[in-house]
């Protein structure tokens, strides 16, 4: 089960190809089943004990991910749109609301790992209850109502796909704390990168369209599309590799304060960082904890599990920079970046801020993205555990600069042109 791909989620119906109500209902139901099944497929190798653990406040238990994504449909689809819907359990909204203040009070995030009850069987029953109600909602709704539901269903499915990725990054972090390193899937390997090299991508000065245009699915933070001045800049075609990172380490990169942002060096000292996340020494050799268990460091593989602070220090050590998200998007649109998608998210030096004229969507779902637009950095691309159909050129992922439990790496930029 080394391939985490799932069928692409596409429930949109173009205006040129009108569907009958039953065709749209079928399409919604199929997209719904595909995504919900993928969550269960990813959870299947995990024991009940695996599914309870919360290894740090930023990570959530697998059982919680399975329940929270279910609550999302109950809260935003079934409650408002299915007359007579009976909630599975009156307390689950409190347990499984994540951060939606408008949706009511919620359990403390850092205490999710203390929820030994409900157990995995009850969570599975919760999922079945909501699945049956959602499929009934699709089957019973007329076309006008289906078209009203469609954007909400798309958000719910894309939300669940985000949690599919988190479920694996979170269990990897938990397994990485275990002195006897468990393998989620013994056959798992990081996807191979395009052969590395020094190839460069020149972006001459120009004004470019940035952000999502059109009506296909996107998160609100990808809009409005707007124009930006980009270049001149040169981007590395390839991702930074483990071999390059080992050279940074050997040159004292983690111990040289002049390479680091002050907050970054303080964080590295406080956390005792001397290598990327999930690396550990075995008999004097560095190994990396992966979903396939403890593995040797492949020098040609892209470096993974580095924070923004580390990526920034590495760039300075290299005499280069991290690109902006606009530079990344322009080069990726032109098809000039190797491994833009599917291996590691790539840090940019762009603050996660609203695009000019950004407006959060109405209602409680307006809390989805907009309220996080401070103190975080944008990552572009996607990772090896991002579900298929969930990547876009305009996708803006975001994490705090000290975070490194996601599949995060980097590519470099140079302005000496
Ligand atoms: Fe969520």
From TrEMBL:
Pathway annotation: Amino-acid biosynthesis; ergothioneine biosynthesis
Keywords: Iron, Oxidoreductase
Pfam families reported for this sequence: DinB_2, FGE-sulfatase
Domain DinB-like per the UniProt entry, residue ranges: 32-167
Signal sequence interval, chain numbering: none
Domain Sulfatase-modifying factor enzyme-like: 198-338
Record InterPro entries: CTDL_fold (IPR016187), DinB-like (IPR024775), DinB/YfiT-like (IPR034660), EgtB (IPR017806), Sulfatase_Mod_Factor_Kinase (IPR051043), SUMF_dom (IPR005532), SUMF_sf (IPR042095)
Protein name: Ergothioneine biosynthesis protein EgtB
Organism, as annotated: Rhodopseudomonas telluris
Source lineage: Bacteria, Pseudomonadati, Pseudomonadota, Alphaproteobacteria, Hyphomicrobiales
């Amino acid at each position: 089960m080394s391939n985490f791909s799932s069928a692409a989620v596409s429930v949109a119906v173009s205006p040129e190809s009108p569907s009958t109500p039953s065709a749209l209902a079928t399409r919604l139901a199929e997209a719904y089943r595909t995504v919900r099944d993928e969550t269960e497929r990813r959870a299947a190798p995990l024991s009940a004990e695996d599914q309870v653990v919360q290894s740090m406040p930023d990570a959530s238990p697998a059982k919680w991910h399975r329940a929270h994504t279910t609550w999302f449909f109950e809260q935003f689809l079934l409650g408002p749109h299915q007359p007579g819907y009976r909630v599975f359990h009156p307390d689950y909204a409190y347990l499984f609301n994540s951060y939606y203040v408008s949706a009511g009070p919620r359990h403390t995030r850092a205490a999710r790992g203390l929820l030994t009850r409900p157990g995995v069987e009850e969570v599975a029953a919760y999922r079945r209850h909501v699945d049956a109600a959602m499929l009934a909602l699709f089957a019973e709704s007329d076309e006008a109502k289906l078209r009203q539901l469609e954007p909400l269903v798309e958000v719910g499915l894309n939300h669940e796909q985000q949690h599919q990725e988190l479920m694996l990054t979170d269990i990897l972090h938990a397994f990485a704390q275990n002195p006897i390193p468990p393998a989620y899937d013994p056959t798992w390997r990081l996807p191979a990168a395009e052969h590395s090299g020094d190839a460069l991508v020149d972006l001459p000065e120009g004004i470019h369209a940035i952000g999502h245009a059109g009506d296909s699915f996107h998160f609100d933070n990808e809009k409005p599309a707007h124009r930006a001045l980009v270049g001149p800049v040169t981007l590395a075609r390839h991702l930074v590799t483990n071999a390059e990172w080992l050279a940074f380490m050997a040159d004292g990169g983690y111990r040289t304060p002049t390479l680091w942002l002050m907050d970054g060096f303080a964080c590295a000292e406080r956390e005792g960082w001397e290598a990327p996340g999930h690396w550990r020494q075995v008999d004097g050799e560095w190994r990396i904890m992966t979903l396939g268990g403890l593995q040797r460091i492949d020098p040609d593989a892209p470096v993974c599990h580095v924070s923004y602070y580390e990526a920034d220090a590495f760039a300075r050590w290299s005499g280069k920079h991290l690109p902006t998200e606009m530079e990344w998007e322009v080069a990726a649109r032109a098809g000039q970046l190797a491994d833009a998608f599917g291996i590691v998210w790539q840090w940019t030096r762009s603050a996660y801020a609203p695009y000019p004229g950004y407006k959060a969507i109405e209602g409680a779902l307006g809390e989805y993205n907009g309220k996080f637009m401070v103190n975080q950095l944008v990552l572009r691309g996607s990772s090896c555990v991002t579900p298929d159909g969930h990547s876009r050129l305009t996708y803006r992922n975001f994490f705090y600069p000290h975070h490194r439990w996601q599949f995060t790496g980097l590519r470099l930029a140079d302005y000496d042109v």
